[in-house]
Every structure is written in structure tokens, then in C-alpha cells.
Amino acid sequence: MRVIDKESSSGKIIRALGYGIGISIALSNRRTSYKITKELIKKIFGPDKPPKNIPSYLLKLRKQKVIEIKKEGKYDKLVLAENGRKILIRFNYEELEIRKPKIWDRNFRLIIFDIPERKRVARNSLRDKIRELGCIKFNDSVWIYPYPCQKEIDFVANYWNVGKYVHFALVKDITNRDILEKAFGL
Fold it and tell me: Which residue range is the domain that position 83 belongs to?
């Protein structure tokens, strides 16, 4: 199976299902269901370029076990299967960013990890993502950031299955504070 890009038609369908935009098909009234589905497709893909062959995308995603049809009363509902949820998590990982508050609370956050050598790939990936998020290396396995970021760091650590090796500390006083403030532009 090829990798699904988040901007491809398949990726847009997965994101729409994952973010709660339901694509339901009412079996009792096909005309109404067609109109609703058409409107949802415009919302998902934009009004200018809806893909011509939505049913083939849905069929392909079902064959790849990315989506599945669940029966709810007299309705059939498309939902993400386990493979689809994994793809959606990957999309969230790629889009992850830390929001900076307008006012800094004058505390630093230390991200400390000691990941075993047998998990080297996860350790390097975690380190790369932490750097991408804007953290500064304080030591080999100690990184620092001035804004709240624990949820984002926990998400990255759990994504790589190394959450138990990653620790977080809130620091009020730290040596070389002025250098750190200058590095972060505070």
C-alpha cells in the first residue's frame, strides 16, 4: 500500500472522517442523502475541485481497510478503521506545533529523556521533532522551551512508544537564564 498524503483525495476523506465530519448515507431516502453527501464533499474538497470519482476512492479505502461501514439503525455510516486512525495520527504528528501564549510566565520547561540504545530510531526521531518544535538543546538528552508544551511532547513521545522514558520539569530558576531568554527572543 502506498503512503497516503494528507492533501490527496484519500487523505482529505480520512481527515474529514477523523475530525468528525460524518459521511452518512440514509438508505430510506436516496435523494436527500445524495444532496447531503454532495454538500459534505464540497466542504471536504472545496467548491472548486471536488474529485470526480468519490465512490472509487471510498471503495479503494475500504479495500485497504482504512475505512469501514458501520450500521446504525436504518443508516450506514462511514468510519475510520484501525489503519485509518493510524494514518490520521500520522497527519496530526506532521502538523503538530506549540502555540505560544501572549504573556510568558517566566518559567522554562525541561524535557529530559533517557531512551535505551535498542530504541535508537525512536530516540533520534523524538529529538528531531523536539528540535522542529523549537526547543533548544541544553544537554544531549535535555531540551528546554519557555512555553507550556507538555501535551505536545507527551504526544510525540507516545507516538514513538517511548513515553515512559521522557520526563518533564517546570523550572523557575536556571543558570544562564539571560542567554536562554536571548536565544528564545524573550
Answer: 9-93
